[in-house]
Design brief:
Aminopeptidase; 167 residues; globular; alpha+beta; 32% strand
């Protein structure tokens, strides 16, 4: 646990680098019952259609988000915040960043999947303007839990204070 509890003003969001992957994978292991292998993150850094960002406090990676882009649509394929850093607005900041980046690229919509049991994430997505668009039965393996599909029509004007770079 950090020695002090900074607000999200102390958080910087930037493009992920190879040296971030150890911390990103640690967050993944702590966040999901069936985590991605580290090699998946290595592939995403290099993937031509992926944008991969990290939330950083000082030199410490405390969260990440990965958006896969397809012409006019984005697919938020992964987002997480380290358990010690949750409930401080970092997930919201990451989502604001993703939405602002999508707007700057003139994407029309962002989609994501979330476990039906993950109520805190669903509340965050709904507060950010995402709406439930469907359900995928037995989406998550090996437990077979269903996923809600959420969709956001990307607003044409900024509704948040984030400032994504043109990286």
């Amino acid at each position: 646990m950090p020695l002090f509890m900074p607000g999200n003003a102390d958080i910087t969001i930037r493009t992920a680098r190879p040296e971030d992957l150890k911390a990103v994978h640690e967050i993944e292991l702590l966040s999901f019952p069936r985590p991605w292998p580290r090699t998946a993150f290595e592939a995403e850094i290099l993937h031509p259609f992926s944008e991969f960002w990290v939330a950083v406090h000082g030199q410490t990676v405390v969260g990440y988000a990965i958006l896969r882009c397809y012409e006019t649509t984005g697919h938020l394929i992964n987002i997480a915040v380290h358990p010690d850093w949750r409930r401080r607005g970092i997930g919201r900041r990451l989502l604001e960043w993703v939405i602002d980046w999508a707007r700057s690229r003139r994407l029309l919509a962002i989609y994501l999947e979330v476990r039906v049991s993950n109520l805190p994430a669903q509340r965050l997505y709904e507060r950010m303007g995402f709406v439930r668009a469907g359900r995928i039965k037995h989406y998550y393996t090996p437990d077979g839990e269903d996923a809600w599909v959420y969709r956001l029509v990307v607003p044409r004007h900024r509704t948040s204070p984030s400032n994504p770079s043109k990286s």
